[in-house]
Amino acid sequence: MALSDIFHAQKVLSVAQSWAPGPNNTLHQLHSLEIEGVTIRGLFLRVRARADMPDEDVVFQLEYPSPGRRDTAISRVEWRPITPHKNQGNAPGDLRFLDIPGSHHHSFELNWLEIEDRMRRSNLPVASPISPDPANLDALLEFVRVSFRISGLELIPTPPWEKALI
Amino acid sequence: MIRNDSVQFRQAVDAVTREIVTADHRDGFSFIKTPLTYPSGAGVVVRVGDADPDFLVTDFGSGYEEAELMGGASVYARNARVIAETAGIGFDSHAFFVLKVPRSQLPGAVVTIANCSREAVSVAAFRMSERHLSENTELLYQRLMAVFPRRTIVKDAEIIGQSTTRWHVATLVSDGPRPTIFEPVSSHHASIFAAATKFNDIAKAEQPPTRVAVVRNRAELKTYLAVLSQEAHVIESEAPDATLMRLAA
Fold first, then answer.
1. How far is the alpha carbon of A9 from chain B, nearest alpha carbon, in Å?
2. Same domain as B155, residue B92
3. For chain B (length 249 residues), average pLDDT per consecutive 10?
4. pTM, two decimal places
5. Is the pLDDT confidence value at A15 over 90?
6. Residues of chain B that touch chain A, judged by Cβ-Cβ distance less than 8 Å
7. Which of A10, A123, B17, B158 fits a disulfide with B40 by CB distance 3.0 to 4.6 angstroms?
8. pLDDT score recorded for residue A67
């Protein structure tokens, strides 16, 4: 399937996964996705959170392999990231050279080169701010549901964030 | 028009300085957002912790996570160790760190950690494109074996250029009226320049072999296509067998 077809298809997350611990207190999930009842080879939703940072620095990344590339990201949402994003000169219009300190969306449309049917190099370098900022995890899941065209995200459990001692 | 010796101009520059480096203070540690960026545009952030009376400085694995998002975590870790050693700092398989930094050395430590983290991600990105190229070479070799069953196909052949440099080419159809080089070239500018330099020197040798660059997509190369085609034919990897046979005839 062409990259654009994959992105625009209605996708389904149908199998719940638990959070796996990663290095540096990170939490991870990797979900296979279906299109029209078929789990598509190489099509994944990757999720990353930080155990010691509740309601902060959560990443959703949609991945699909394409010829000629080893990195597979085709879209990414970063909610309240620690690391700001800086667009370079190849971003269009007002997004050019924009410094984005808060939540942002590396959309498929901004990073897809239609004529060549491939993603820009350097792992989705163009992003746009998300406004209004999703107020909580449910709002973030709704944003991802619409942006990535994925249903079934309610199966993703809240990360086991560590509560700060008062 | 603002004159560059005016107060307004200087205030603008001062404001920019404060915008590109900021601190974010948390309970027990702080993040310093540096002006550096990873290849994706994500800012390089360094974490400074309390190691009273000194400081702990680390990239807290953010370079590793950046590489992981592009599928290059293992490549990152391998190169990061070397980068850390060269810079005289620590790397624990995920994060760069310096454990006890006195106040006087803190700025240098922050800059070094940021630079190392960024360098490791950039190297990982480049190594990943190189690894892909070596997989393509093997695929090309297998294809040539199938297309030319009666000819001798040499992998990693040595060709001497006009400068007497001994070049290695990915594949060579070595017998027949005129040997033919088939060389996979990625769209990364370093790969293109290396191939163009090699082809240019080989082209000027006595009785040079035919030179064919094999790329994934010619349109992707833009103006670099003309750089490559100055001394080599250029075909796409999906070109039909008849094209390969015509070039090596």
1. 23
2. no
3. 82 92 93 94 95 94 93 91 93 94 93 95 83 78 91 90 89 87 87 90 89 87 83 88 88
4. 0.71
5. no
6. 19, 24, 27, 31, 33, 37, 39-45, 60-62, 64-66, 69-72, 93-95, 125, 128-129, 131-132, 187, 216-217, 219-220
7. A123
8. 67
Distance, in angstroms, between A91 CA and closest chain B CA? 11
Q: Report how many domains make up chain B.
A: 2
Q: What is the tens place of the pLDDT at every residue in A83-118?
A: 999 998 889 999 998 999 999 999 999 999 888 788
The SS3 call for residue B27 is: coil
In a shared domain, residues B118 and B166: no
> Domain containing B231: what range?
148-248
Clarify whether residues B117 and B188 are in a common domain.
no
Residue A166 has what pLDDT?
46
Q: What ipTM is given for this predicted complex? A: 0.72
Chain A residue numbers touching B129 (CB-CB < 8 A)? 70
Q: Which residues contact A132 (CB under 8 A, 6 or more apart)?
A: none
- What is the CA A43 to chain-centroid distance, rounded? 13
Quote the pLDDT of residue A86.
92
Residues in chain A within 8 Å Cβ distance of B219: 115-116
pLDDT in tens, A26-49: 999 999 889 888 888 889 999 999
Residues of chain B positioned with their CB less than 8 A from the CB of A75: none
B119 and B176 in a common domain: no
Chain A residues near residue B37 by CB distance under 8 angstroms: 86
* Residue B11 and residue B122 share a domain: yes
Domain boundary among B94, B128, B162: B128
Instruction: Tell me which residue of B70, B121, B47 sits closest to A25, measured CA to CA.
Output: B47
**CATH label of the domain that carries residue B19:** 3.30.1460
